[in-house]
Design goal:
Blueprint (H helix, E strand, L loop, with lengths): L1 E6 L4 E8 L3 E9 L1 H5 L6 H23 L8 E7 L3 H18 L3 E5 H7 L11 E6 L4 E6 L5 E6 L5 H11 L7 H8 L23 H16 L6 H27 L3 E5 L6 H9 L6 E3 L3 H4 L3 H15 L21
Parallel strand pairs: 1-4, 4-5, 6-9, 9-10
Antiparallel strand pairs: 1-2, 2-3, 6-7, 7-8
């Protein structure tokens, strides 16, 4: 089955053709980072207009790279949420129109399910496993029971890990997106600043990074007010270690509790070298970790194609009345 996946939830316009939920035939991504960089973050109205300008070309390029035509496509999938409502509407509407006009089955895809499915691409990973999703807007700890059945064990209570990265990076003057810059600096700094590891409760799996973010910002402002020099490298290292300590500790506690040692990490922060090394170091304890290729860690159409494939196999098509839902959660099992 050839699936055309369309992604436009934030600031990447992406389309991909994937065979049987595993084999990537094409993966085209048009990023708006350079457009939004001068604003220090994504401007929703600008993002949706840029999606409108480029989406037709991105889809055509995906078909050309895969060496197929629209007549060869068996299923169209498009992100319906979560994300920026204007951006979501562009991709979802385009996917519906493409499906209807060419008489191709259509499914609306949960973006978070797409991040889980990113780990199926080019791997032999099969459920059950633990999924840790760490992105700019979300942090989830999930028991993946089968391809479309998930038990959400933990989620962010406030700022997601990726959001904290971006805000700390902006305060340090590192620009947008901040995650890669902090990861780079963290390789050369010292963990000599005592930032909090917020666990909420020892028996709980939810995440909270707002307090950590505030602690870092307060430290930076305090140093500036005292006229003291700030080592960006040391701040980056200390901050990143505080984030990773929490992510790894909660994931490993869940692994021990439910007896599953297969862990799939995805989302934009899964491209972080520090996070990848932490889980690699756990291999000596029998942990098997899966990370998507870095191009598949950030938003892309291939992960939407893969998620669409498994959703269609189990549930069939979506109604064309399906809506874009900007705050759609993994806990929301509704497909309407």
């Amino acid at each position: 089955m050839l699936v055309l996946g369309i992604e436009s939830s934030c600031d990447e316009t992406a389309a991909s053709v994937v065979k049987d939920g595993r084999e990537i035939l094409s993966n085209i991504i048009s990023s708006q980072i350079d457009v939004h960089k001068k604003y220090g973050g994504v401007v929703p109205e600008v993002a949706s207009r840029k999606h409108l300008e480029i989406i037709s070309q991105v889809v055509r390029d995906a078909l050309v790279e895969a060496n197929v035509t629209i007549e060869d496509i068996d299923l169209v999938g498009a992100t319906r949420g979560p994300g920026l409502i204007g951006s979501l509407l562009v991709g979802l509407s385009y996917g519906k129109a493409l499906s209807f006009s060419n008489n191709i089955p259509f499914v609306g895809v949960n973006h978070m399910e797409g991040h889980i499915a990113a780990n199926y691409l080019g791997t032999d990973l099969k459920p059950p496993f633990i999924s840790l999703i760490v992105s700019g807007g979300h942090t989830y700890l999930i028991h993946v029971i089968d391809y479309i059945n998930f038990e959400v064990i933990g989620r962010t209570r406030d700022d997601a890990a990726g959001e904290a990265y971006d805000k700390v990076a902006r305060t340090l003057g590192l620009g947008y997106p901040g995650g890669p810059e902090i990861d780079k600096l963290a390789k050369t700094g010292k963990d000599n600043i005592d930032f909090p590891r917020v666990m909420i409760k020892e028996d709980h799996y939810d995440f909270s990074f707002s307090g950590l973010k505030t602690a870092v910002l307060n430290y930076i402002n305090s140093q500036k007010m005292k006229g003291l020099e700030i080592s960006k490298e040391d701040v980056a290292t200390s901050f990143q270690n505080a984030v990773l300590d929490v992510l790894v500790a909660k994931t490993m506690r869940l692994s021990q509790e439910i007896g599953i040692k297969k862990i799939a990490i995805s989302g934009g922060v899964s491209a972080n070298d520090g996070l990848r090394q932490r889980f690699k170091d756990l291999e000596k304890n029998g942990i098997i970790s899966y990370f998507p290729n870095k191009i598949l860690s950030t938003d892309n159409g291939a992960m939407i194609s893969a998620a669409a494939y498994y959703q269609y196999i189990r549930e069939g098509i979506s109604d064309y009345k399906i809506k874009a839902v900007p705050n759609l959660g993994l806990e929301d099992s509704s497909r309407s």
